């Protein structure tokens, strides 16, 4: 009989020990959760500083601008800055072609920005000119051409467009695609792109003579030939009236 009671007592003691261990574990978890919550609340306070912001690829955006986009004030605190919110805001900024936000050790938010580059100036309504990037997005609309950062596209007049609009004319988009395949040095040597009523296109170079490319709707077929010819004439002092690439082989009309 005593043996049975002893066994029951041991079982009761074991159950009590288990309950105590479980209670201790629950208390430990509650304390840890409370400490984590308090710590998270503390690091998100306005005066808490952690990390830094590194902006690459643009001088139009600073670390202070990133804080304003995130709706927070200085000092920098990466615990309260949403990288998704920053990337979304920069992606919807017409000034930029794309943006990428990432983290790097230790505690650095890296913001990589690709700015839009002007490809052509295009005439639009009310005697204005639109500065258009390589994807057809209007970067600026003004009453004149203010700089020589891009060639003028003549012979095509678009409608009433505004900053941030996208060009819809097929001829313009094809020319932009062509230009996007050229390096910056080549584009810098093009002063004007002219399209006539028959949709034939020619590039006027800074050398003083044009290169005829033929039908604008087939301009991409002339890309490799244009690059080859341009690289050859760049190294030579050719006195030409024009260069015709509308045929299979290029034809150079020399000055008399």
Automatic annotation (TrEMBL):
<keyword id="KW-0132">Cell division</keyword>
<keyword id="KW-1133">Transmembrane helix</keyword>
<keyword id="KW-0812">Transmembrane</keyword>
<dbReference type="GO" id="GO:0051301">
    <property type="term" value="P:cell division"/>
</dbReference>
<dbReference type="InterPro" id="IPR005548">
    <property type="entry name" value="Cell_div_FtsQ/DivIB_C"/>
</dbReference>
<keyword id="KW-0472">Membrane</keyword>
<dbReference type="InterPro" id="IPR034746">
    <property type="entry name" value="POTRA"/>
</dbReference>
<feature type="transmembrane region" description="Helical">
    <location>
        <begin position="21"/>
        <end position="43"/>
    </location>
</feature>
<dbReference type="Pfam" id="PF03799">
    <property type="entry name" value="FtsQ_DivIB_C"/>
</dbReference>
<dbReference type="InterPro" id="IPR045335">
    <property type="entry name" value="FtsQ_C_sf"/>
</dbReference>
<dbReference type="InterPro" id="IPR013685">
    <property type="entry name" value="POTRA_FtsQ_type"/>
</dbReference>
<dbReference type="Pfam" id="PF08478">
    <property type="entry name" value="POTRA_1"/>
</dbReference>
<dbReference type="GO" id="GO:0005886">
    <property type="term" value="C:plasma membrane"/>
</dbReference>
<feature type="domain" description="POTRA">
    <location>
        <begin position="48"/>
        <end position="116"/>
    </location>
</feature>
<keyword id="KW-1003">Cell membrane</keyword>
<keyword id="KW-0131">Cell cycle</keyword>
<dbReference type="InterPro" id="IPR050487">
    <property type="entry name" value="FtsQ_DivIB"/>
</dbReference>
<protein>
    <submittedName>
        <fullName>FtsQ-type POTRA domain-containing protein</fullName>
    </submittedName>
</protein>
